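Holo prediction — 3-isopropylmalic acid.
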Amino acid sequence: MDSKKIYKIGVISGDGVGPEVIEAGLTVLKATSEKYNFGLELIKYDFGGNRYLKTGEILPDSAIEEIKKLDAIYLGAIGHPDVAPGILEKGILLNLRFSLDQYINLRPVKLYPGVWAPIKDKGPEEIDYIVIRENTEGIYTGSGGVFKKGTKDEIATQIDINTFKGVERCIRYAFQLAQKRNKNKKVTLVDKANVLTYSGDLWRRTAKQVNEKFPNITLDYAFVDATCMWMIKNPEWFDVIVTNNLFGDIITDLAAITQGGLGIAAGGNINPEGVSMFEPIHGSAPKYTGKNVICPIATISAGAMMLDTLGEEKASLSIENAISKALGEGMIKSLEAGKMGMGTKQVGELIAKLVV
Ligand code: IPM
Ligand code: MN
C-alpha cells in the first residue's frame, strides 16, 4: 500500500514574472517529490493585479480561511504597474503574513560557488549568514494616520509597534537557529538603539533575557547604518542577524546583491506553529513579463526552504545541491535577466534533472 505523505500547497503565482518563476519552481518540486516519495497537491489561486483590475477583489477573508487549512504557500510576486503602490502589497502579501501570523521572515544570505558577486575578495566562505526579520509588527502594521490631508497643516504618522511577545518570539527563533547552524554561534541584534531608545531598549533587554537560555551563543549588537557597512566590508562576521521589520526589509536587498542579486535571494515567511509561505524576495519585474528571461533560482530555492520547513530535509538539501552544481560548474552563465545562457523554463528543467 502506498502511504506516502501528501502536502497541500497553495500556489499564488501573482503578477509579472511570478507565474514564470513559479512554473520553473514547480518543475523542480515535482521532480523532487517523485525522487523522495512524497506527494504535492497544488491548490492554485489567481490573486494579484489582473484579478483585482477585472473584479475589484484583492484577497477575500474566505480565501484566507481556506489557506489556513493548507500545509504551505508558494508565492511568486505581487505588484502590478496599473495598480497604485500599496494596494496589492498590503492587501495580499502583508495581509497573508499578518493573518497567518508568519512572524519570522527568514532570509538566508549565501553566496554559491561560481556566482559573480560585487564584493572583491569575499567568496562563499565569507558570505554565509541568515537574516531573521520580524514579520508581523514594526512600522508595517499600518498604525497611524493622516490629519488635514492636502493642506499646509497636514500631519502624517506611521507608528512603529513593538510588543514584548512579538520581539521575544522572534529573538528566540534567532537563537534557536544559531544553535542549529554550525557557524560562529552568534546572534547579532541589528537596531538603531542610539536613537530609537524605547523600542531599542525593549529589543536589547529581551535579547539579553533570551540569551540566558542559550549560554553558548554570543549576543552581539550593531546599529543598522553600520551594519550596511559591515555587510560589505566584513560579511564573515555575521552568523544570524535578528532585526525589526523595516530594517530587515532594507538590509536584505543589500544582502541579496552581495550574494549575486535578486535572482537568487529567497525568503520564508514562517509561522513555526502554523502555515508558512515561501517566495523569491524580488518583485514582479513587469518589464520582463512573459519573456522567459528572468532567473528562477530564488523561487527554486524558496521551494527548497518550503520542503525543509515541511520536514523533507533531504529533499530540500538535494535541491540546494542541484543549484550549487548548476552554478558551480558554470552551467548557468549569470543570474541576470537575459544573460543566463538559457531561459527561465530551461533553468527549472536543468535543476530538476540535477536533483538526485
Ligand atoms: C519584501 C517586499 C515587501 C516588504 C513589499 C512588497 C511589501 O519588499 O518582501 O521584502 O516590504 O516586505
Ligand atoms: Mn523588500
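READOUT: The chain has a mean pLDDT of 97.
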